[in-house]
Q: What sequence folds into this?
């Protein structure tokens, strides 16, 4: 009976180790995955697998004033500091996630429709971001129009400067 328990423990221990190694985001241990041709025994639980997000999207906005000058760009999607309880219950994340999902959706649309630049303005992601920037954030008291941009960065790594990837037209406020 002891040998059976040890064999079962070794089997499940090996399975756990193979599953653990297969989650490496740098894919150093993909040979482990080759042991499971069906993909049913060794799960792939990497976040956003099989290709995890490599960049963060940032939404920035600025206002145009009556003299045609503009305010400085300011980020409207900067995440707040997390608390331990946020790991269990973080309702405020929903709005933040909606904006980042809209930015990702807009980037996907523009990547697949580079020849249809004006069509982007009637997409749900664009209208979501425009609505948020127009009504969800404070504006300069004299602002007449607003504009947003999407930039990407490598997140917490800070290895590279953020890169502007999308710039909206100016839109009237009111």
A:
């Amino acid at each position: 009976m002891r040998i059976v328990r040890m064999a079962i423990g070794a089997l499940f221990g090996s399975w756990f180790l193979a599953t653990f190694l297969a989650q490496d985001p740098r894919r150093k241990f993909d040979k482990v995955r080759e042991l499971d041709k069906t993909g049913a025994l060794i799960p792939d639980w990497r976040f956003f697998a099989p290709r995890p997000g490599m960049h963060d999207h940032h939404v920035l906005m600025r206002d145009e004033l009556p003299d045609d000058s503009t305010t400085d760009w300011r980020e409207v999607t900067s995440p707040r500091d997390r608390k331990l309880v946020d790991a269990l219950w973080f309702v405020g994340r929903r709005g933040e996630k909606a904006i980042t999902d809209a930015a990702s959706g807009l980037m996907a649309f523009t990547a697949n429709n580079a020849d249809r630049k004006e069509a982007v303005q009637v997409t749900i992601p664009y209208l979501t971001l425009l609505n948020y920037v127009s009504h969800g954030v404070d504006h300069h008291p004299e602002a007449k129009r607003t504009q947003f941009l999407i930039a990407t960065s490598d997140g917490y790594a800070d290895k590279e400067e953020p890169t502007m990837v999308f710039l909206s037209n100016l839109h009237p406020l009111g």
Observations:
- The chain has two domains: 1-52, 56-172.
- The CA atoms of residues 38 and 44 lie 12 Å apart.
- The mean pLDDT is 83.
- DSSP finds four helices and five strands in the chain.
